[in-house]
Structures are given as structure tokens and as C-alpha cells.
């Protein structure tokens, strides 16, 4: 049995979801439990609710998937910094502030009140926008996909489950 806990943490709409052997079995937004609209911290209540709904414990999680990858788009980030050198101190400060949120095993142990050694999952960081695409595609009946997305950087992809 393969258990994946998906998290949206430190971003508006903090939430958790559990997949067992690739099938979604539980998902809930933290704001539904703590009654704080647009909650943007660690979704500890959502994690526990998903575990309860799936009949699992934190030690049962094999993978933790997070829709944030600090290493994504490095060339675009470097190009932006070079074009905007006066913003470099702010960018470095934001990067340093975000780096403390990268060790989710320690954060989860603290927020969920368990010893870190009880957590055996491997953390998988997924680029944020790719996570949006995957969440729509993998639960759809489609065999192929096409994604066009523009936010700060242009993205375009097409393919199937193997290329996503």
C-alpha cells in the first residue's frame, strides 16, 4: 500500500488530501475546521482529519507531496534578479524567510505533536502551477492534456500522464 499526503501549506487555502494506491480517499481545507477564512499556515487540523477519515496514522505516510518547489524556474528567477538588481535584497529576504518552511518533517512533528522519528515519509516538492494541472488532470477521464498558463512566467505543456 502506498500512502501519499498532499499538502497546501503557507499559502491561502491551506489543506490536506490523502491518496492510497493512487486513489483519493480524503481531502479537506483547514478553514472548514478552524473557521479561519483563507487560512495560510500549516493545516494541522486538516492533516489529522484526513488521517482519521482514511483510518491512518502519521507513521503510515510514505510520501508527502507539497505544491511548492524552491528549485523550480531557477533561470527565470535569476534573469529577473539580473534585470531588477535593486530588488535583490528583498528577494533574498523572502527566500530566507521561506527556507524555514522547507523542512516539513520538523514542522509536521511540531504541529501534529509527534516525535520527528515517527515520521518516515519522503518529501516530494512539486512546482506550484504543475500541481494545479496535475490535480485536475489525474482525476479527470482525459487521456491527454494541454495546459496553458500565464502568471509571472509563461508555461505551456501538452502530453499525457507520463509526460506530466
Distinctive features:
single chain, 164 residues, alpha/beta, Nucleotidyltransferase, domain 5, 5-stranded mixed β-sheet, two-stranded antiparallel ribbon, 6 helices, 34% helix
Please tell me about this protein's structure.
There is one protein chain. With 164 residues, the protein is of the alpha/beta class. The chain contains six helices and seven strands. It has a five-stranded mixed β-sheet. The longest helix has 12 residues, at 88-99. It is globular and about 50 Å long.
Task: Supply Rg.
Answer: 17 Å
Instruction: Give me the count of strands.
Output: 7
Count up the helices: 6
Indicate the proportion of strand residues: 15-25%
CATH architecture of the domain at 3-72 and 100-126: 2-Layer Sandwich
Question: What's the pLDDT, averaged over the residues?
Answer: 81
Quick overview of this protein structure:
The protein has 164 residues and is of the alpha/beta class. 34% of the residues lie in helices and 24% in strands.
Mind sketching the topology for me?
Layout: E1 3-8, E2 15-20, E3 23-29, H1 31-34, H2 44-54, E4 63-66, H3 74-83, H4 88-99, H5 104-111, E5 122-125, H6 128-137, E6 145-150, E7 154-159
Amino acid at each position: 500500500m502506498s500512502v501519499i499526503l498532499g499538502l497546501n501549506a503557507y499559502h491561502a487555502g491551506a489543506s490536506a488530501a490523502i491518496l492510497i494506491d493512487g486513489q483519493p480517499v480524503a481531502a479537506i481545507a483547514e478553514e472548514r475546521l478552524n473557521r479561519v477564512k483563507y487560512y495560510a499556515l500549516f493545516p494541522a487540523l486538516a492533516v489529522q482529519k484526513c488521517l482519521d477519515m482514511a483510518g491512518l496514522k502519521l507513521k503510515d505516510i510514505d510520501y508527502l507531496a507539497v505544491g511548492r518547489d524552491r528549485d523550480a524556474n531557477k533561470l527565470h528567477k535569476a534573469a529577473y534578479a539580473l534585470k531588477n538588481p535593486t530588488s535583490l535584497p528583498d528577494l533574498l529576504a523572502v527566500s530566507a524567510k521561506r527556507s524555514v518552511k522547507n523542512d516539513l518533517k520538523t514542522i509536521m512533528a511540531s504541529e501534529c505533536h509527534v516525535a520527528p522519528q515517527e515520521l518516515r515519509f519522503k518529501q516530494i516538492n512539486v512546482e506550484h502551477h504543475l500541481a494545479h494541472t496535475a490535480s485536475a488532470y489525474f482525476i479527470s477521464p482525459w487521456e491527454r492534456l494541454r495546459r496553458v498558463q500565464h502568471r509571472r512566467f509563461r508555461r505551456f505543456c501538452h502530453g499525457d500522464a507520463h509526460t506530466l
